[in-house]
Amino acid sequence: MSAATYQYVDLPDASVVTTRALLTARDNISDTVAARAMMCIHGGAGFGKTLAVNICLRALEPHEDVRKITFRARPTARAVRYELFTALDLAGEPPRHPSEFDRLLKTALAERPRTFLVDEAQWLNGEAFEYFRYLWDEPSTQLAIIFVGGEGCHTVLRREPMLSSRIFIWQHFTRLTPSEVLEAIPLFHPVWADADPDDITFADQHAAHGNFRAWAQLTAHTRTALARTGRSRVDQELLRWAFSRLA
Ligand SMILES: Nc1ncnc2c1ncn2[C@@H]1O[C@H](COP(=O)(O)OP(=O)(O)OP(=O)(O)O)[C@@H](O)[C@H]1O
Ligand SMILES: [Mg+2]
């Protein structure tokens, strides 16, 4: 499967690796969507959350109306209403009055079942989370919501008992373990496919530390080093040069 659209750095020939976390996310997301429930995927930066949920939702999309909302700053309830208005492709001007806006959103959401992917959910404060709960609780809507966020997301959500008590599944993304690295990385990119496993372990211990985004960056620098030196295979000298760019 091509990973082109989801790669952090432009990395030709990279593939999506079906990690244990991605498989678990697939089950969790399909169970959440089937139950029209809410779930939360949380964990450190670069661990592969966004990529995993996008791959899993893409598989559901032929049958499921999926809408993606990504926050980049701390939104108010008003900003959440506007984001939803845009995500739902609603026609006309956004209503001026909150109650009118709420009615419009609830009517649109009552049309058919929908799934929201809310990424970067660590930006949401209590008021913004509460607005999602309000829409989800409305009997006429059939919403499934996947909240995805950094480590802070869990803490913020836990502070909101009204919402957190309604979360159906919590999934914590963690680093790849050293043995997962040896399985996943040769499948991730051709430069690692025939690398010495000791060199992969060396790179993980010194630079990537089980973090998928760091592996993607390291792989990009390693490709450059292979091209510049004309070598056909990764070695420790070449890796040290690549690490020097990551430090
Ligand atoms: N399963 C995977 N297969 C292949 N590459 C992956 C996989 N997971 C992550 N990556 C690589 O790691 C990069 C970072 O992953 P991703 O953006 O999903 O992290 P994240 O957990 O959402 O981080 P953040 O919290 O910063 O948003 C991806 O752009 C991709 O290059
Ligand atoms: Mg992300």
Automatic annotation (TrEMBL):
TM region(s), chain numbering: none
Family annotation (Pfam families): AAA_22 (PF13401)
Name of protein: ORC1/DEAH AAA+ ATPase domain-containing protein
PANTHER family documented for this protein: GENERAL SECRETION PATHWAY PROTEIN A-RELATED, PHOSPHORIBULOKINASE _ URIDINE KINASE FAMILY
Source organism (scientific name): Streptomyces flaveus
Annotated ranges, domain ORC1/DEAH AAA+ ATPase: 36-157
Molecular function terms, GO-annotated: ATP hydrolysis activity
Top-level taxon: Bacteria
